[in-house]
Design a protein that fits this description.
About 45% of the residues lie in helices and about 20% in strands. By secondary structure, it is of the alpha/beta class. The protein folds into three domains: about 220 residues, 3-Layer(aba) Sandwich (Isopropylmalate Dehydrogenase); about 130 residues, Isopropylmalate Dehydrogenase (3-Layer(aba) Sandwich); about 40 residues, no CATH class. About 40% of the residues are buried. Bound molecules: NADP nicotinamide-adenine-dinucleotide phosphate and magnesium ion. The site of magnesium ion (MG) has 2 residues, from helix 9. Magnesium ion binds next to helix 9.
Length: about 400
């Protein structure tokens, strides 16, 4: 059988630890036998990031701007322990942070749904995709401990020497705390566009929620920007695609999400997204079944698993002990990137292959063959727990058939 041709390369970002081990298995057993893979390879493993003074991360993001599609393996974000473990020159920044800042994107996280892994919320029969705005608010705030009586104000000094604006935060009668937060029209606009683009791409409704009744200027600005961008650029395309944009208050959104059957994108402000993505991913069963895609408003797509490098399993692997690490989210990162490549290049064989790879993966689990994390929570009777590579080979067998 001849292999599927690719017209344009995709950017391949290799990573660390157990996910790096699985990366090679996925390529060797599931991709390379079927696809004449064209990829521009960047080694984002921590050693190479250190050797290149992290230039490789920047290069990989620039390559993503050039080719439009990337697939990324999980990578270590160094902390003090890692600086010692890898003898690092410095505590390099999170590659995801660097790439996100360069592509100016929004991260969408969606669970992979299979029979036998039932969500804790019974009525969630379809995936709920969370989009988190990853700029500003609480995460770029300025805080102050207020020691005693006195006045706290917000002061805006225009750069062009115009008139100063002041607003009283609080007239303190005793000790307390205060904080200042900000966001940018540009960032909110980019977020809105990424959300609307992804809704069109995946043909799902999109919900957005804030607390505009209480925060009449700050949160209201988010609501207004979403409404303006939607009216001006997306309304007709949404109608054509048969999908909806829906705005409501955050507390009403939470109530509706709990009652829903899923099948939509939930766009969240930064803090809401931080909190709700953990709730939603836990409720769907396993972090190892959560995909993640960075969508840039400029039309770049970077696919990855939502989980990390699974360090604990890697140390077992290094000691020669058997592991049963779940490769599903990493496989779906590959299928997502290949499908997007196929869509952009107009190569239906590649799209079809991506669909088949995903189906083979889901069928494998639904036939009772799965890794330990799923075997522990499945409702299927007598599941067979497979090792890391055994599971990938079981998928390969299905794919072959
Ligand atoms: P993690 O790698 O997500 O793993 C945490 C635990 O979740 C694992 O120990 C394992 O539980 C379970 N788990 C996660 N993925 C799994 C999978 N595919 N199959 C089976 N079980 C899985 O998080 P971490 O241990 O906190 O972080 C490890 C490294 O990953 C850190 O250096 C961090 O910086 C990095 N990280 C990278 C990314 C990214 O690149 N996007 C994201 C998050 C973290 P058990 O041990 O109980 O089996
Ligand atoms: Mg969180």
């Amino acid at each position: 059988m001849s292999k599927i041709e690719m017209k344009t390369p995709l950017v391949e970002m290799d990573g660390d630890e157990m996910t790096r081990i699985m990366w090679k298995m996925i390529k060797d057993d599931l991709i390379l036998p079927y696809v004449d893979l064209k990829s521009e390879y960047y080694d984002l493993g921590l050693k190479n990031r250190n050797d290149t003074d992290d230039q490789v991360t920047v290069d990989s993001a620039n390559a993503t701007k050039k080719y439009g599609v990337a697939v990324k393996c999980a990578t270590i974000t160094p902390n003090a322990a890692r600086v010692e473990e890898y003898d690092l020159k410095k505590m390099w920044k999170s590659p995801n942070g660097t790439i996100r800042a360069m592509l100016d994107g929004t991260v969408f996280r969606a669970p992979i749904i299979v029979k036998g892994i039932e969500p804790y919320v019974r009525n969630w029969t379809k995936p709920i995709t969370i989009a988190r705005h990853a700029y500003g608010d609480l995460y770029k705030n300025t805080e102050m401990k207020i020691p005693g009586p006195g006045k706290v104000e917000l002061v805006y000094t225009p750069a062009d020497g115009g008139e100063e604006q002041r607003a009283l935060v609080h007239e303190f009668k005793g000790a307390g705390v205060a904080q200042g937060m900000h966001n940018l029209d540009d960032s909110i606009t980019g977020f809105a566009r990424s959300c609307f683009n992804y809704a069109l791409d995946t043909k799902q409704d999109i919900w957005f929620a804030a607390k505009d009744t209480i925060s009449k200027i700050y949160d209201h600005r988010f609501k207004d920007i979403f409404a303006e961008i939607f009216e001006a650029e997306y309304k007709d395309r949404f109608a054509e695609a048969g999908i909806e944009y829906f705005y409501t208050l955050i507390d009403d959104a939470v109530a509706r999400v709990m009652r829903s059957e899923g099948g939509f994108i939930w766009a969240c402000k930064n803090y809401d997204g931080d909190v709700m993505s953990d709730m939603v991913s836990t409720a769907f069963g396993s972090l190892a079944m959560m995909t993640s895609v960075l969508v840039s408003p400029h039309g770049y797509w970077e696919y990855e698993a939502a989980h990390g490098t699974v360090q604990r399993h890697y140390y077992k692997h290094l000691k020669g002990e058997p592991t049963s690490t779940n490769s599903v989210a990493t496989i779906f990162a590959w299928s997502g990137a290949l499908r997007k490549r196929g869509e952009l290049d107009g190569t239906p064989e590649l799209i079809e292959f991506a669909n088949k790879l995903e189906k083979a993966t889901i069928d494998t689990i639904e036939s009772g063959k799965m890794t330990g994390d799923l075997a522990r929570i499945t409702t299927l009777p007598n599941p067979t727990q497979l090792g890391t590579e055994e599971f990938i080979l079981a998928i390969a067998e299905n794919l072959e058939a």
